[in-house]
Design the sequence.
């Protein structure tokens, strides 16, 4: 018995040795495969799914509202989900559109307000990501003339100038306040202007843009939070706003800053889509 056991152990050791020798080859192969499978385009779509889930989890959007990315290889196109609540969006729901809102090879119902995204990408070549949401805390600032400005350190990247777009100014009192065609989208984009990041929409919500998706999501999470703090502060007295310099110094203006990626990682995992994170973010 003892001999048999010794023999077995010897065989095991030999097998272990042999597999240890082979280990580098077998380990390297799948890694190579994975890197090939997740192209820049594929990861961009994964990031868009993550963005949808984070915005839903953080109540920036509810059943309505949407986030998009410019096509990383074709500036004249963008990706956004088909008409679906952001918390339900998966990779299969991501649809490619031209900037005038025509779907590429997809017949599923689109978002009615997809024209917002196309117009923002058309007017702002400097941005690659856009959001439209109805976050309630931002609404009073689109109705009263009281400006929405950053007051908390997490909200500086929204910029110190947030214009208000009133659809009635150009399209009259008969609309349903939604942006349902390219002309309305372009008018909204014109109000945002060449450098601002956020535009409020009277009685409706806001739209915002950013060069980087992580920057957009971080800004969008803290935008309604900043609005709530500002609303409370206005009840108490004079408000000390952030200066232009303080706002410009925000870390999420640099999406590669570790502090910016920390939130993205945590939110993605909390929202149940950590498996879609890029390898370097896991
Ligand atoms: Zn809307």
Sequence:
């Amino acid at each position: 018995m003892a001999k048999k056991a010794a023999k077995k152990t010897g065989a095991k050791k030999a097998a272990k040795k042999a597999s240890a020798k082979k280990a580098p080859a077998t380990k390297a192969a799948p890694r190579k495969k994975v890197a090939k499978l997740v192209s820049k385009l594929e990861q961009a779509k994964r990031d868009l799914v993550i963005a949808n889930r984070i915005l839903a989890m953080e109540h920036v959007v509810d059943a309505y509202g949407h986030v998009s990315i410019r096509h990383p290889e074709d500036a004249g196109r963008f990706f956004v989900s088909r008409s679906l609540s952001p918390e339900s969006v998966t990779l299969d729901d991501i649809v490619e559109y031209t900037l005038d809102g025509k779907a590429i090879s997809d017949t599923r119902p689109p978002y009615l307000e997809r024209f917002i995204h196309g117009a923002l990408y058309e007017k702002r070549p400097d941005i690659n990501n856009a959001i439209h949401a109805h976050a309630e805390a931002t609404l009073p600032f689109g109705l009263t003339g009281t400006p929405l400005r950053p007051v908390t350190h997490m909200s500086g990247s929204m910029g110190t100038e947030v214009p208000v777009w009133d659809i009635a100014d150009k399209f009259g009192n008969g609309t349903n306040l939604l942006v349902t065609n390219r002309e309305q989208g372009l008018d909204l984009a014109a109000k945002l202007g060449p450098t601002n990041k956020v535009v409020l929409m009277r009685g409706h919500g806001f739209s915002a843009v950013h060069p980087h998706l992580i920057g957009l999501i971080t800004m969008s999470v803290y935008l309604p939070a900043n609005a709530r703090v500002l609303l409370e502060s206005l009840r108490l007295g004079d408000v000390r706003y952030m200066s232009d310099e303080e706002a410009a110094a925000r870390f999420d203006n640099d999406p590669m800053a570790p502090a910016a990626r920390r939130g993205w990682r945590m939110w993605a995992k909390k929202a149940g889509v950590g498996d879609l994170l890029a390898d370097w973010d896991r």
